[in-house]
Amino acid sequence: MKILHVSVSPRGEDSNAWWLSQQIIGRLHGSVTVRDLHASPVPHIDADYADALGSPVEPGHAAAARGSLALSEQLISEVEAADCLVIGTPMHNYTVPSSLKAWIDHVVRVRRTFAITPDGKVGLLRDRPVYVAIVSGGGFSGPQAQQPDFLTPYLKVALATIGLHDLRFFTMERLAAGPQVIAAERERVATALMQPDFF
Length: 199
Prior knowledge:
The protein contains 7 helices and 7 strands. By secondary structure, the chain is of the alpha/beta class. The protein has one domain (2-135, 148-172): Flavodoxin domain (Rossmann fold, 3-Layer(aba) Sandwich). The strands form 2 sheets. Strands 2-1-3-6-7 form a 5-stranded parallel beta sheet, with helices on both faces. The chain has a two-stranded antiparallel ribbon with strand order 4-5. Helix 1 (16-28) links the parallel strand 1 (2-7) and strand 2. The longest helix has 15 residues, at 67-81. It is globular.
């Protein structure tokens, strides 16, 4: 199995998002390609990309090799080559961090990963599991949620646009409460992931 790990936290391997991602990857047993959006930031789209998306046809090979459009092609190819994705991300201001949004802007590309039809947008990539590891300083799920969650619904819609519907969410919440909560959340997650039917 080929696993694409999209690592989003600015704290890298010291982060809870990395720890949670590694717990998931350990259960998947495959070769891992890491796309670290902090160590190697994905730039925002540029004029070549914007011109290509504004054109009624997909750009030729020469145009596709320029600027951020070339990076877009590389990032899409990484997704296409993977049997599953693991996205490890913190929640920033109730939604995805800007680095993950930039990655999504490159991967969700008209005529390349989705088509516009009379019935709406249709994903062009084959579906595969996407494991999303979310960490948050506050609580955003359940009856005692303390803040809104725009991250989960956004990812569901954005990734479904390109054909990725099989999303599985794993969370560690209220981590701002301190080390004891972090330790308890890690223990809870580790126990849950050991269940034979959890995946």
